[in-house]
Specification:
Layout (H helix, E strand, L loop, with lengths): L6 E5 L3 H11 L5 E5 L2 H8 L6 E5 L7 H9 L9 E5 L5 H10 L3 E4 L4 H46 L5 H5 L10 H14 L5 E3 L1 E4 L2 E4 L2 E3 L2 E3 L5 H9 L3 H4 L2 H4 L2 H5 L5 E8 L2 E6 L17 H32 L1 H28 L4 H29 L8 E2 L2 H18 L3 E6 L7 E2 L1 H26 L6 E9 L2 E8 L6 H4 L19 H11 L3 E7 L3 E9 L3
Length: 552
């Protein structure tokens, strides 16, 4: 990670308050800037990016609420956390006003120094993590692009003049495929080009790997000996001997337990000599040295498998980057129950001191506090699970509407700050499809994020006369569930529409998107046997429609 120096902005109209805050926060390794008014703070924000801002609520001229609202509307600072500091006990309406203006927390004066320092450290750590995620995403993107370029070069070298049907022949039997291996082999097959590929699995038997079957119309082999011995023997045979039926008579018998397999034809002196079989594991292949081009095939397999791992990491980074983008919404979701808990405890203390704390009153208040503790725990657990790698998740029935509501709850505050109307029309009678509820939520978040950027883009062009709106709908027709996200944003030009599902394609400014969101969403829906269609008109808006079968 590049050298990161966090910056904190302190805004208060009283110099003594600024001096006190600065003295307390000197214990933190951060660059501190101070402003005596809202206007001065906005000028400082034009030149610096801050990890956190602490604002006094009551200031002459531009108060803290107005300053926070203006900061939240600025695209360069929209994700900067804002903490309000107030000497007065604010009522619920004022606190709500602060959260709507963009605040993520409140601290009352006089404050405990260690309490303030611990809170500030948390937000600085979050800012550092967002920067790390961005840099990691950029590094992985570069690595992924290098892999793509490398494999494209190799595939050009390896294109064979024979068609798939002539080279590979036919194979029989059904093969169950491990998903990750199948995906890797699919990539390899695409890279091979005209020659195609057949999947093959080398089963572990007594700590070694043996081929179960590998044969085609030009010849083959099938034995349960160790792979090195078998390949060494087979390579020494010419094509006529490879056609020997004795060598392949047990093919069908051995084929039954097989899963994934891969056959790659190799040409020596322009003749098909042998079929090479590889597995996603390194083992001695020195006996292939006599074939000049073998190392290229091995590199190809290795590159494709590395690419799968990079793609997996990129997906995880994209998910975490999405969480970073909606951090304000998550903080708001947490602060609502936490604020209710805080106010409830204050009310109980006041009631106890005044002698008005009846048993009925305490039961009512403690129940409300307990309910909000459970709500806070549920939010934290949901975000924790959402941020994890979902590859090991077993697909089950899930409620589409619940996934959509969870996604909306994470971004609704962000939409409010952008002045965008977000509505939902969800049919509660739709059936439950099979899939991963967290991956589906990732799809919805991506669609909502794209819609918000489209609306913001149109708003920049048309100004205050434009009113941005986004609507999410669900309904069912026969055995298909439909999810639509409609916006009245800038729309997508026709020449771009057929490219937006491609990995790394993005219309956003550099550094503001990986270009992976829609391609990942497409893959998630495809895994559910569903489809994504996009209709768009420039200047009018876009409708993204997801169709998922319920009997998938």
């Amino acid at each position: 990670m590049s050298e990161y120096q966090p910056k904190i902005l302190l805004v208060d109209d009283l110099p003594q308050n600024l001096m006190l805050l600065e003295a307390v926060l000197k214990k933190i390794d951060a660059e501190i800037h101070t402003a005596g008014s809202g206007e001065e703070a906005l000028k400082i924000l034009e030149e610096h990016t801050f990890s956190l801002a602490l604002l006094d609520v009551h200031m002459p001229g531009m108060d803290g609420f107005e300053l926070a609202s203006r900061i939240s509307r600025d695209p360069d600072h929209i994700n900067m956390p804002i903490i309000f500091i107030s000497a007065n006990n604010l009522d619920e309406m004022s606190i709500s006003q602060g959260y709507k203006a963009g605040a993520v927390d409140y601290i009352r004066k006089p404050f405990n120094n260690e309490f303030l320092i611990s809170k500030v450290k948390v937000f600085i750590a979050m800012a550092r993590q967002q920067i790390e995620l961005k840099e990691q995403s950029e590094r992985l993107e570069e690595l992924f692009k290098e892999q793509m370029l490398s494999q494209k070069t190799i595939s050009e070298q390896l294109k064979l003049e024979k068609s798939y049907s002539k080279v590979s022949g036919k194979f029989v039997g059904d093969f169950e495929a491990d998903t990750s291996m199948r995906d890797a082999l699919q990539i390899i097959g695409e890279l091979i080009g005209a020659s195609g590929a057949i999947m093959y699995d080398l089963k572990p038997v007594q700590n070694t790997f043996v081929p179960r079957v590998a044969w085609n119309q030009n010849g083959g082999y099938s034995e349960k000996d160790e792979i090195n011995t078998l390949f060494l023997d087979s390579i020494g045979q010419n094509r006529e001997k490879l056609k020997n039926r004795e060598l392949v008579k047990n093919a069908a018998e051995v084929l039954a337990p097989a899963t994934d397999f891969l056959m790659l034809p190799i040409h020596v002196f322009n003749e098909l000599q042998v079929i090479l079989v590889f597995y996603n594991r390194e083992y001695p292949l020195s006996f292939f040295d006599k074939f000049e081009s073998t190392s290229i095939f091995i590199d190809l397999i290795s590159s494709a498998l590395e690419r799968m791992e990079v793609h997996k990491k990129l997906r995880h980074t994209e998910r975490l980057a999405g969480l970073g983008e909606i951090a304000t919404g998550i903080a708001h979701e947490l602060n609502q129950p936490l604020n209710t808990i805080s106010l409830g405890l204050d009310n109980i203390l006041l009631a106890v001191k005044s002698g008005k704390a009846t048993e009925e009153y305490l039961d009512k208040k403690t129940k409300k506090i307990h309910d909000n503790i459970l709500r806070t725990r549920a939010i934290i657990d949901h975000v924790r699970t959402f941020s994890r790698d979902q590859d090991g998740y077993i697909n089950t029935e899930f409620n589409v509407n619940d996934s959509i509501r969870n996604a909306i709850s994470l971004v609704s505050e962000q939409y409010s700050n952008h002045g965008i109307s977000l509505e939902s029309e969800l049919d509660d009678n739709i059936e439950k499809p099979i899939g991963n509820t967290y991956k589906f939520e990732e799809v919805i978040l991506n669609m909502l994020s794209n819609a918000m950027h489209a609306v913001d883009s149109r708003k920049e062009k048309e100004g205050s006369s434009y009113y941005g709106s986004i609507t999410v709908l669900t309904y069912q027709q026969k055995k298909n569930i439909f999810v639509e996200v409609k916006d009245n944003g800038c729309g997508i030009p026709e020449h771009i529409l057929n490219k937006i599902m491609q990995p790394f394609f993005t219309t956003k400014e550099e550094g503001k998107g990986t270009g992976l969101g829609l391609s990942i969403a497409f893959g998630i829906i495809k895994d559910m046997n569903g489809t994504i269609d996009i209709e768009s008109t420039v200047g009018s808006g876009t409708n993204v429609r997801v169709v998922i079968p319920v009997n998938n």
